[in-house]
């Protein structure tokens, strides 16, 4: 029994000696490699999450813009175009559209207006919208820019920009700490395309057919990049 105890004590001393000689587990190559990979994956995953959050906003905006454009030139909006009717066709309430139209019509001075003055503009925006249409102003422009105004007024575009900024910072850290990262180029491609898509949603151009093609191209490209990046991250976990 005493021999067995002495043998166990000897093993414990040997283990202590080994740790003192070799350093902590963090100094062991395999452990350091594993920790580095986990840290690299963390940066990449966090950046991906930020871009996914931004993409959700941009995708919603693009759908509302497309639906408003389509309704105003090919749907019932071609005959009767009002904010209440537009609200029934897209994913925005009448109040949101009223606020969006009030904002986009007074964008340059909106920040300087008091809450009371803003509300006055919002209260009469449905009437102002109808007057604008009656004056011969482009129906699709009035509808599309009312939708765009929603995403400015409710902070949607600002929130997307915050996600883009956070993603860019994480990607910068990833590149600096892991120059040969397997994730960086995929994140960069996703970031470049989704920010370009967001810029287009803020100021769409071209005809309806051109807008339809552009939106679908961005959607397909962004969706593919997102799925590929998600798969890459999953296989590395």
Q: Which secondary structure elements does this structure contain, and how are they paired or packed?
A:
Elements: H1 2-22, H2 29-73, H3 83-89, H4 94-105, H5 115-123, H6 125-134, H7 139-153, H8 156-177, H9 184-202, H10 208-236
Task: Please provide a written account of the structure.
This protein is mostly helical. It has one domain. Helices cover 80% and strands 0% of the residues. Helix 2 runs antiparallel to helix 8 and helix 2 runs parallel beside helix 9. The N terminus is likely disordered.
Distance between the termini: 47 Å
Residue windows where pLDDT falls under 50 for at least 5 positions: 1-32
Average predicted local confidence, pLDDT: 87
Question: Percentage of helical residues?
Answer: over 70%
Number of helices: 10
Number of strands: 0
Count of structural domains: 1
The SSE order reads HHHHHHHHHH
* Overall outline: elongated
Quick rundown:
By secondary structure, the protein is mainly alpha-helical.
Key features?
elongated, about 240 residues, 10 helices, about 80% helix, mainly alpha
């Amino acid at each position: 029994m005493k021999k067995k105890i002495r043998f166990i004590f000897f093993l414990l001393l040997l283990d202590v000696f080994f740790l003192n000689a070799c350093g902590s587990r963090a100094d062991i190559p395999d452990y350091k490699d594993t920790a580095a990979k986990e840290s690299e994956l963390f940066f990449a995953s966090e950046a991906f999450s930020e871009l996914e959050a931004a993409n959700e906003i941009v995708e919603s905006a693009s759908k509302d813009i497309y639906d408003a454009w389509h309704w105003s030139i090919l749907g019932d909006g071609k005959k009767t175009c009002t904010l209440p009717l537009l609200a029934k066709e897209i994913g925005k309430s009448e109040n949101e559209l009223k606020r969006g139209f009030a904002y986009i019509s007074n964008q340059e001075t909106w920040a300087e207006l008091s809450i009371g003055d803003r509300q006055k503009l919002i209260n009469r925006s449905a009437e102002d919208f109808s007057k604008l249409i009656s004056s011969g102003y482009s129906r699709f422009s009035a509808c599309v820019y009312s939708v765009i105004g929603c995403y400015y007024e409710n902070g949607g575009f600002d929130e997307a920009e915050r996600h883009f900024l956070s993603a860019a910072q994480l990607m910068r850290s990833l590149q600096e700490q892991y120059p040969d990262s397997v994730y960086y180029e995929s994140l960069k491609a996703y970031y470049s395309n989704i920010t370009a898509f967001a810029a287009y949603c803020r100021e769409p151009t071209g005809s309806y057919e051109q807008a339809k093609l552009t939106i679908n191209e961005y959607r397909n490209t962004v969706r593919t990049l997102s799925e590929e990046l998600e798969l890459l991250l999953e296989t590395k976990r």
